[in-house]
């Protein structure tokens, strides 16, 4: 009996341990941070953090950027959820970003940020993030920290196993969490899971110049649940490794029914072989409706395109694309060492960590050292692919990342700790407690060919007794550990937004070199841009009124508008004339039902306002910009729907001027 089978019998002990670690406060927990820890995380005024940390916002649907080692929140980047702070998903320019085949979806569940790569190293260009609930992948431009593209993923029941970059960002790869019926007949009994449910692995091509995404092909794979994955690199370039669970193919009460077998699988995917089959014309086009939303930096506006088909490869027919490796039940992550030789994976309830060898795996495939098939996929014998096992690492290994000194760091959910072990000998060399119930962890550059190392960040699920209470729910938590020495040292607790499932971090200089400070006003191609105050105007077209407005320290133009009527649809198109870094302007008007605007230097953004009553309505700048910020305001007069008040507007001596602008 192999060790992982023995350890799978420990579920009762695991359950007891879970209660113990999540319900009890370790003795002297408050003394864990000691010595010069405070000095190590102190970033003096005027100094900058060493590292950017990008953490998923979980159920907030956003991404948060933090500075490390300070733990300071730098920015919340709106992605899948509407954000009234800056109008994301509310403005006329950004609404299209949240279009899907299910309609306008203003929320999602964001789990796994992934930095773009060049030669296996973070390159600072883009950050990808998954939408789990309504399957989507977003691309964030790290020059502007703005979401520029959201691509819906068809044939996916849930986009949790996503997005993972290949070594040179040839692809961003997404696997379905929930297998579902795919194809022409999707209205089938749930009990027909084994016969009719399939998974889909989407290989999304990324344009290397602009970053634009397109689905190159999908692999139709066995009907199980797919979890975290990692791309091969170095010796394993051209492969991808997914963790899989529910090999029982259960469809109800998975907590019990998906724990019947002693093993689940790691799926090894030879995407280079898949590319060959595509070139040979062996792919089949399948009807599929999905949205592709892009934000254009020149027009400062988004557009949606509806796609109608996807190219598929069926692994039941093309059997040398994917292979299964047995793994302790319910694995959560499959992680690849910096040299690409070792694949680390284990079950969430296990007490051992298998380390598989890429060389042994490919040798076993070549020699057909298989242990039968699962849904027409060859299962490589466990021992044939195994390099060795990390013995007694703790309970509940979840996720592993690597430093630059030959060590691996594994989060242990059940025993609530991080375990450090040597990759070549698989010997445990250190362990530290986390507070509490750690999920993922993040080593700076931990999935790179050459990790940066120095820090590991724990992303914890429970924070009782760590922060001031805030009712039934406490803030989410991250903890920073120094890993530069032989022993891991806790430096800092800091709160996070949403639930930080996973994070990626890289040296700040990698991101900073690409930073965009302004949008050049001369290159603004927004159709309603007013590039100077002489271009401002107000135009009526039936019940629609368009306001070409400018903002500059410290006034809005026009700042007096009359002739708007009750029930009109008024569009304020506000252009920020500033060409100075960090001088955004805001715009809000009394009675607006949706949001404000936050307009970056050189940018144009639009808010729709439908006044429902007569009167004089103030509008103003919401973002402090100068000593006379309070004076940056104006008025819109609304008259009755049948009023004959002329449309008049202006600023200063011309407010309101008598000219009537009609279209």
What key phrases describe this protein's structure?
663 residues, Immunoglobulin-like, 9 helices, 46 strands, disordered N terminus, disordered C terminus
- The CATH architecture of the domain at 529-662 is Sandwich
CATH superfamily of the domain at 529-662: Cupredoxins -  blue copper proteins
CATH class of the domain at 529-662: Mainly Beta
The helix fraction, in percent, is under 10%
Nearest-integer average pLDDT: 93
Shape: globular
What share of the residues does DSSP label as strand, in percent?
35-45%
Report the radius of gyration as a whole number of Å: 27 Å
The structural class is mainly beta
**CATH topology category name of the domain at 529-662:** Immunoglobulin-like
Q: What kind of sheet is the major sheet?
A: 11 strands, mixed
GO molecular function: copper ion binding; nitrous-oxide reductase activity
Organism: Solitalea agri
Subcellular location: Cell envelope
Protein name: Sec-dependent nitrous-oxide reductase
Write the layout of secondary structure elements.
Layout: H1 3-7, H2 11-23, H3 37-41, E1 51-56, E2 63-68, E3 72-77, E4 99-100, E5 103-104, E6 114-118, E7 121-131, E8 136-141, E9 146-152, E10 161-165, E11 171-175, E12 180-181, H4 193-196, E13 197-206, E14 213-221, E15 225-231, E16 239-245, H5 254-257, E17 263-270, H6 271-279, E18 284-296, E19 301-314, E20 322-328, E21 331-336, E22 342-347, E23 352-357, H7 358-367, E24 370-374, E25 377-380, H8 382-385, E26 386-391, E27 397-402, E28 407-412, E29 417-422, E30 428-433, E31 438-443, E32 455-460, E33 476-482, E34 489-496, E35 503-507, H9 508-512, E36 537-541, E37 544-552, E38 555-557, E39 560-565, E40 569-576, E41 585-589, E42 597-599, E43 604-609, E44 615-620, E45 633-639, E46 648-650
Parallel strand pairs: 14-19, 37-40, 39-45
Antiparallel strand pairs: 1-2, 1-35, 2-3, 4-5, 6-7, 7-8, 8-9, 9-18, 10-11, 11-13, 12-13, 13-14, 15-16, 16-17, 17-20, 18-19, 21-22, 22-23, 23-26, 24-25, 27-28, 28-29, 29-30, 31-32, 32-33, 33-34, 36-37, 37-38, 39-46, 40-43, 41-42, 41-44, 44-45
């Amino acid at each position: 009996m192999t060790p992982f089978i023995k350890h799978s019998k420990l579920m009762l002990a695991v359950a007891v341990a879970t209660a113990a670690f999540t319900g009890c406060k370790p003795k002297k927990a408050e003394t864990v941070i000691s010595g010069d820890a405070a000095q190590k995380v102190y970033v003096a005024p005027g100094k900058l953090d060493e590292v950017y940390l990008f953490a998923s916002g979980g159920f907030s649907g956003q991404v948060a950027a933090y500075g490390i080692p300070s733990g300071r929140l730098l920015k919340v980047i709106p992605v899948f959820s509407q954000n009234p702070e800056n109008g994301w998903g509310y403005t006329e320019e950004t609404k299209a970003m949240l279009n899907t085949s299910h309609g306008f979806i203003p929320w999602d569940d964001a789990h796994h940020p992934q930095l773009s790569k060049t030669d296996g190293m973070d390159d600072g260009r883009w950050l990808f993030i998954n939408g789990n609930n309504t399957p989507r992948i977003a691309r964030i431009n790290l020059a502007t920290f703005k979401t520029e593209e959201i691509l819906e993923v068809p044939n996916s029941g849930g986009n949790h196993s996503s997005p993972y970059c290949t070594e040179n960002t040839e692809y961003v790869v997404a696997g379905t969490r929930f297998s579902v019926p795919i194809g022409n007949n999707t209205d089938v009994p749930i009990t027909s899971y084994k016969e009719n449910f399939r998974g889909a692995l989407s290989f999304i091509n990324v344009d290397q110049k602009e970053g634009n995404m397109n689905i190159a092909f999908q692999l139709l794979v066995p009907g199980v649940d797919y979890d975290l994955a990692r791309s091969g690199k170095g010796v394993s370039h051209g492969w991808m490794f997914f963790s899989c669970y529910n090999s029982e193919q259960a469809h109800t009460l998975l907590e019990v029914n998906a724990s019947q077998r002693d093993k689940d699988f790691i799926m090894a995917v030879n995407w280079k072989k898949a590319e060959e089959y595509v070139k040979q014309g062996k792919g089949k086009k399948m009807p599929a409706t999905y949205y592709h939303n892009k934000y254009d930096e020149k027009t400062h506006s988004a557009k949606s395109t509806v796609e109608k088909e996807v190219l598929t490869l069926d692994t039941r027919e093309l059997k040398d694309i994917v292979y299964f490796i047995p793994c302790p039940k319910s694995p959560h992550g499959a992680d690849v060492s910096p040299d690409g030789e070792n694949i680390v994976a284990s079950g969430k309830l296990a007490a051992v960590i298998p380390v598989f060898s890429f060389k042994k795996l490919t040798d076993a495939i070549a020699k057909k050292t298989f242990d039968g098939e699962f849904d027409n996929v060859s299962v490589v014998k466990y021992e044939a692919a195994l390099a060795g096992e990390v013995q007694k690492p703790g309970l509940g290994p979840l996720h592993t990342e690597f430093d630059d000194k030959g060590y691996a760091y594994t989060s242990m959910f059940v025993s609530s700790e991080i375990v450090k072990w040597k990759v070549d000998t698989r010997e445990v060399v250190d362990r530290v407690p986390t507070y509490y119930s750690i999920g993922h962890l993040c080593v700076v550059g931990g999935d790179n060919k050459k990790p940066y190392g120095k820090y590991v960040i724990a992303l914890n699920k429970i924070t009782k007794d760590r922060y001031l209470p805030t009712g039934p729910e406490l803030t989410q938590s991250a903890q920073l550990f120094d890993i530069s020495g032989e022993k891991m040292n806790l430096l800092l607790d800091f709160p996070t937004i949403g639930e930080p499932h996973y994070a990626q971090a890289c040296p700040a200089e990698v991101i900073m070199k690409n930073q965009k400070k302004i949008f050049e006003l001369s290159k603004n191609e927004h159709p309603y841009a007013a590039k100077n105050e002489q271009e401002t105007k107000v135009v009526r077209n039936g019940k629609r009124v368009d306001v070409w407005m400018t903002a500059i320290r410290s006034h809005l133009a026009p700042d007096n508008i009359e002739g708007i009527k009750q029930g009109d649809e008024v569009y304020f198109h506000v252009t920020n004339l500033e060409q100075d870094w960090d001088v955004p302007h805001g715009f809000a008007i009394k009675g607006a039902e949706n949001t404000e605007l936050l307009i970056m230097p050189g940018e144009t953004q639009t808010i729709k306002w439908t006044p429902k009553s007569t009167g004089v309505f103030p509008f103003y700048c919401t973002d402090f910009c100068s000593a006379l910020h309070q004076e940056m305001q104006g008025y819109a007069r609304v008259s009755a729907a049948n009023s004959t008040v002329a449309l008049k507007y202006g600023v200063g001596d011309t407010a309101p001027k008598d000219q009537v602008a009609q279209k």
